[in-house]
Write a structure and sequence with these properties.
The protein has twelve helices and two strands, in the order αααααααααββααα. By secondary structure, the chain is mostly helical. The protein has one domain: Amino acid/polyamine transporter I (Up-down Bundle), CATH 1.20.1740.10. It has a two-stranded antiparallel sheet with strand order 1-2. The relative contact order is 0.22. Belongs to the amino acid-polyamine-organocation (APC) superfamily. Spore germination protein (SGP) (TC 2.A.3.9) family. It comes from Clostridium grantii DSM 8605.
């Protein structure tokens, strides 16, 4: 397709931002209450075999994305049906993230502004980013990931005086069941969503075997553990579960005299950058799939119509932020599981059979 290749650093940066995109403003796994950080660690361990599976697919089919692999393994008819399923998943996920951020913007600052206005701006930025290509998105992501790590580290340090260790004690007080529920939620959001990158990543500038999924998950997951632990230490488990945008609420508590305050403005900016990157990756994956369905070598013809579709879905998919929160907590983990686990395992089994028959197994 004539697209720029990413470096490993850019690919890892995009995964880190993808994980941190909306999970930095919406605390995943809050069902585990004060043990949410343990739930996050469990979900990181649970997602690792799936990520190894993704890496194996990249290794067997060098230079191919998930859509190509599906077509090779299952043939043009069944392959296109499965590809359509993943096109829907990436389109739907992008719309959900748009919805997350337009409500975030509406609630924290532009209360009187119709939500369609920030939706238009965010969608336009994402459409332009995808039109410029994955190379441009990767370079932006590399820079933004460094800023995000620095910013989160600074926030955690500044919040140390407001932390109360008793907020996470005693550990596992409510038993293991809430932790497992929280781990299942965090598994699907955000870690399971990394499957989107199998539709985007094909080859890289470096020749070594990529370990991008594991490294990106570990870095992004570490930041998620840090932010969720900070949220609970500062405002407690009940407080973390009370707010829609917990991290933003916690950052607002930073007030060191007249020297450092109102830092939540910068927090909002970093959250939005992560969100735009995540939406752009979802749109990129959607358009790559559409181009494969229509046997086109250039995905860019579908960027604008798919971007507009994603914008419309993201603007009107929920009637209120309560509906959005309810879907994310109660429905999304079960809805996403087939896309994130069941189908990838089926595809992997088919890929290994194909590799054995064609002497591609190493």
């Amino acid at each position: 397709m004539g697209e720029e290749k990413l470096t490993y650093k850019q690919a890892i940066s995009l995964i880190v931002l993808f994980i941190s995109g909306s999970s930095t403003i919406i605390t995943p796994g809050i069902a585990a209450k004060k043990d949410v950080w343990i739930a996050t660690l469990i979900s990181m361990v649970a997602i690792t075999p799936i990520l190894i599976l993704f890496q194996r697919l990249l290794y067997i089919f060098k230079g191919k994305d998930l859509y190509d692999i599906i077509d090779i393994v299952f043939g043009p008819i069944l392959g296109r049906v499965i590809s359509l399923v993943y096109i829907w998943f990436s389109l739907h996920l992008g719309a959900l993230v748009i919805n997350n951020f337009i409500y975030f913007i509406n609630i924290i600052s532009l209360n009187e502004t119709p939500i369609i206005i920030p939706a238009i701006i965010i969608s336009f930025l994402c459409i332009m980013s995808v039109k410029y290509g994955i190379g441009v998105v990767g370079r932006w992501g590399e820079m933004a990931a460094i800023l995000l790590v620095i910013f989160i580290s600074m926030i955690v340090i500044l919040l140390i005086p407001s932390m109360h260790i008793e907020n996470i004690q005693p550990i596992l007080y409510d038993g293991i069941k809430p932790v497992l529920r929280g781990a299942f939620s965090t598994f699907s959001f955000p870690f399971g969503e990394i499957i989107i990158f199998t539709m985007v990543f094909t080859s890289f500038r470096e020749k070594e075997k990529p370990r991008i999924y594991i490294i990106g998950m570990l870095l992004g997951g570490s930041m998620l553990v840090l932010t969720s632990l900070t949220d609970v230490l500062v405002i407690g488990a009940d407080g973390a579960g009370m707010y829609y945008f917990t991290a933003y609420t916690v950052v607002r508590r930073i007030d060191l005299g007249n020297f450092i305050q109102r830092i939540e403005i910068f927090a909002s900016l970093m959250f939005l950058i992560g969100g735009i990157i995540k939406i752009s990756i979802c749109l990129f994956a959607t358009c790559r799939g559409v181009s494969k369905i229509f046997n086109s070598k250039n995905y860019k013809f579908s960027v604008t119509p798919m971007g507009i579709t994603m914008f419309i879905m993201g603007t009107f998919i929920y009637e209120s932020i309560m509906d959005m929160s309810s879907w994310a907590i109660e429905v999304w983990p079960y809805y996403a599981f087939p896309f994130q686990v069941i189908l990838p395992i089926i595809i992997y089994i088919g890929a290994e059979i194909y590799a054995i028959r064609n002497n591609k197994r190493e």
